[in-house]
Amino acid sequence: MACGTALTLALGACSSDDKGGDGKGDGRPELKISGAYVPQPPTKEMAGGFLTVRNGGEQADKLTSVSSDVAGKVEMHKTVEQRMERVKSLRVPAHGTLELGRGGNHLMLMGLKRKPTKGQTVTFVLHFERSGAVTVEAPVEATNYTPRK
Question: Region (Disordered): which ranges (predicted)?
Fold first, then answer.
């Protein structure tokens, strides 16, 4: 998948507060994931992962965990006063965006099984509280790669 390509997800986990209906305007999260990439790490110990989750739906969701084919574990981090802090979940607001990028919220791939190198692809499985599991393919880019805004 090209870096700029958006992955559109037809998601909508049922819950007791769903309004029912045809799936349009029924209050469910409507997630789109785009811009996923992993910069080639300088060492073989850990790597970072970045992407954007847009929610066009009426209901918020939460990213509750992430796994990857190249890492023993993936941690979600937020940056507070220039310090990384591990978090148990990251909120995806209704009609809002969760950005995972350099200097802010991000994924840390720990216990690498192999060092991702430029030109390869890393698979992430994103687990959302309401929308369930979503698989995303992220290209490995140069260490100093910065996506265009």
Answer: 14-36
